[in-house]
Amino acid sequence: MDRHVKRNIFTLQGFYLFVFFGIGSLFPLLSVYLSEVENLNGYQIGLILSIGPVIMIFFQPFWGMLADMKNSHNALLTLTTFVTGMAALGYVFFDGFVSFMIIATTLAIFQSAIIPLSDSISLKYTSKTGVNYGNVRLFGSLGFGLAVFEMGRLSEWNPQVIFYAFFLTLLVSAAISIKMPQEPSGRPTGLFSGMKDLMRMKKFLIFLGVTFMIFGPNLANNFYFSLFVEDRGGTYTGIGIAFLIAVLSEIPFMRVAGSWIRRLGLLQVAFIAAIVSLIRWIFYFTEPDLSLVYASAVIQGFSLGLFIPAGLQYIRDITPLHITATAVTIYSAVGNGLGNWFFTFFGGIVFEEFNIYGVYLFFASLTLMGVLLTVWLIKDEKRSHSKQITTN
What we know:
MFS_trans_sf; Growth Hormone, Chain: A; cell membrane; HcaT-like; mainly alpha; transport; MFS_assoc_dom
């Protein structure tokens, strides 16, 4: 690897580190802040936490289509990262349910572009240079884990620190994004032409369903896991420790994801990740002891550490190069947006009507459907491969 490639890879790793440090500073502890500091009820918290994913459903594809149409991936990434950091300060300067809904909406509009656009840039660059994408993306897990651990302790001193940390790290991320490798220009496309092409691809649509069922509960868990640990007797610091174990455990699995994918296949690795997620939600439903919750937190690394690189690379492999950003943003909109909203919103209702353990039974039920869809895709891939061999 020459010096220029190393510098670009280091830049990409730095971007993921700081962006996910900011995300880990804010969102895992936001539900506890709204509950204990602002004294909002379960329905209000569910609405505030779920409005962001709803907005992302519509705006993530928009950012991707705009980036592909204008070939402006890097400029859009810098702009949206900066504005996202600024928007979070609204939680400090305003009060009340309505104000928080407006802030969450504004923040989500711009935040929705950050991960899919950076993923698109990183996927294309690592593919071109032969670098394992997981070795870049794992720095996001590192940043997230360090943030929830440190912010968990600092929040006991001043709960508003989570908003200042988010602002500062997103500001640094925006500066880093200026130095990221430029997204190669593809052929010009109309704003909706890429969307039309993707909607005709059966494999793409089915995998969106898998992403919804598997990734949605994992993202919603970032909000409810803190309430789960608290219910089991954990403190703010305990929440931080649990998140640290869970997120840092993603790193070794992201490092080996490339070799597992080459050996087993993309869908097979996604299937393993889905099964592990299902086991995790069932285990939490059984109301385990707090010590077992800490010990089992590594399950997240096994599931997300494999699913994130496998899912993104599968999307890259089955879609045309000139609409990669559109494909990645739609994929992200279904997981980060629609799936996140669905499981966060209805999780809030289940939490209010039953308890936190009912939330995890809800997660397990839908994750099982994602497992079955993955099995269908694997069988369909084998049938297609057999037909191709017979034809040849």
